[in-house]
Design a protein that fits this description.
- By secondary structure, this protein is mainly α.
- It has helices at 3-19, 24-38, 45-54, 61-74, 77-89, 95-108, 114-131, 136-148, 157-165, 171-199, 213-236, 241-259, 265-299, 301-312, 316-330, 336-353, 358-372, 380-389, 397-416, 419-427.
- It has one domain (57-427).
- Residues 12-419 form the TRAP C4-dicarboxylate transport system permease DctM subunit domain.
């Protein structure tokens, strides 16, 4: 059987299993293993590739950042940041929505995980927003959208994975490059959420008292110091990205136990169990996606597809639009980590053909993934926030897609004005 036919079988099997409801990790691993067997590429290489794909030192940062995010959620630190953000925003229509997004952005400098931030902020903000008269779908959409900025604002688990797959893009450079787009995305969402609240006359927190600024600042100072310590240690070279993740965990435990005194032994045990479960899911996807990647690389499938695209789309602008469209559609059905593994082998040859900067391209991909985290039908962040809001995914459709349009303006800006992404890493010497 020819390699072209085997490549067709690989993708047909992938799509069939996905539509059949098979978990994505199993779909990637099973499709890849079947093709490895048919192509006689050596079944003995499968377990070796699975092991090698996750036995990389930089990947230790993933479970550590996951653990750090859960610690800060359970320690009650999100509540102190909500009061501080509310003291800045003040009581006005759309103020609670803006506060939720602002707090999620700050948490982005701690956990690097959208679902973790959505859970921490949602537990505090969604009940307040519903009490203030916001529709449940609106509250869920706003918190999920705010949480999506966390994979852009460093530290970011997505950037760690991208750097592993594209070694030319270092983690510190990606962290620096993601800062400005992450902040711009957050500001766009704040503007969008306030506009939606005022246009539809939802929410009325004008009668709510404004928390005193200095008291709120004193309560939140330990939480606000976390991003400064983590990113400052990275910038000065005191720690590596992996060590920064461990530093975040130690700092979170110290603040939760000694300052807020909210972490009991029972809570710590539950935190460790939850972090293990989430990390296991992520690393399982990474491990089994490597089998799919080995099969497709051996067959040259993505190389043929890349050559086809380059041969039929000569315009750089049209190619960028096509890539963004592919990623936005994929984000409706596939989680972010899998998007990297499925599409990067296709996009790397195209990136090399047009001589695109791998750091800039990594930020574009991550921006697309961030958008996918909060729009239906999959929207991982939305799954989390809908549980807190006790509402259906369908109720978020209008609000979520309206916020997608605001954040998409930042995607367009970063796509066609690369200096927005690259000026900070260049200024820092990366």
């Amino acid at each position: 059987m020819s390699y072209d036919a085997l490549g067709a079988i690989l993708f047909a099997l992938f799509v069939f299993l996905l539509l059949a409801g098979v978990p994505l990790a199993v779909t990637l691993g099973l499709a890849g293993t079947v093709v490895v067997a048919f192509a006689d590429l050596g079944l003995s290489s499968v377990p070796l590739n699975v092991y090698n794909s996750i036995s990389k030192y930089p990947l230790l940062a993933i479970p550590m950042f996951v653990l750090a995010g859960i610690i800060f959620e359970r320690a009650g630190i999100a509540g102190s940041m909500v009061r501080f953000a509310s003291s800045i925003v003040g009581p006005r229509r759309g103020g609670l929505a803006a506060t939720a997004i602002l707090v999620a952005m700050i948490l982005g400098g701690i956990s690097g995980s959208g679902p973790a931030a959505s859970s921490a902020v949602g537990a505090v903000m969604i009940p307040q927003m519903i009490k203030a008269g916001y529709p449940r779908g609106f509250a869920a959409s706003v918190v999920a959208a705010g949480g999506s900025t966390d994979i852009l604002i460093p530290p970011s688990i997505a950037f760690v994975i991208y750097s592993m797959l594209v070694p030319a893009a270092s983690v510190p450079a990606l962290f620096a490059a993601g800062m400005v787009p992450g902040v711009l995305a957050g500001l766009a969402l704040i503007v969008g959420s306030i506009w939606l609240a005022r246009r539809h006359k939802v929410g009325n927190e004008a009668d709510e008292p404004r928390p005193p600024f200095w008291k709120s600042l004193r309560e939140a100072i330990w939480a606000l110091m976390a991003p400064v310590i983590i990113l400052g240690s990275l910038r000065t070279g005191v720690v590596t990205p992996t060590e920064a993740a461990v530093l975040a965990v130690v700092y979170g435990f110290a603040v939760g136990v000694l300052v807020y005194r909210s972490l009991s032994w029972r809570t710590i045990y539950e935190i460790l169990v939850e972090a293990c479960e989430i990390s296991a899911v992520i690393l399982t996807i990474l491990a089994l996606a490597s089998v799919f990647a080995v099969a497709s690389n051996a067959l040259g499938t993505f190389e043929h597809m890349a050559n086809f695209l380059v041969g039929h789309i000569s315009s750089e602008v049209l190619m960028l639009l096509a890539i963004n469209l592919i990623l936005l559609v994929a984000g409706m059905f596939i989680d972010g980590i899998s998007i990297f593994f499925v599409f990067l082998p296709l996009f790397i040859p195209i990136m090399q053909h047009f001589h695109w900067d791998p750091v800039w391209f990594g930020v574009l991909m991550t921006l697309n993934i961030a958008l996918g985290q909060f729009h239906p039908p999959v929207g991982l962040n939305l799954v989390v926030t809908c549980k807190f809001a006790e509402t259906s995914m369908e109720s978020t459709t209008y609000w979520a897609f309206a916020l997608v349009l605001f954040m998409a303006s930042v995607l367009a800006l970063c796509t066609f004005v690369p200096s927005v992404v690259m000026w900070l890493p260049r200024a820092l010497g990366y």
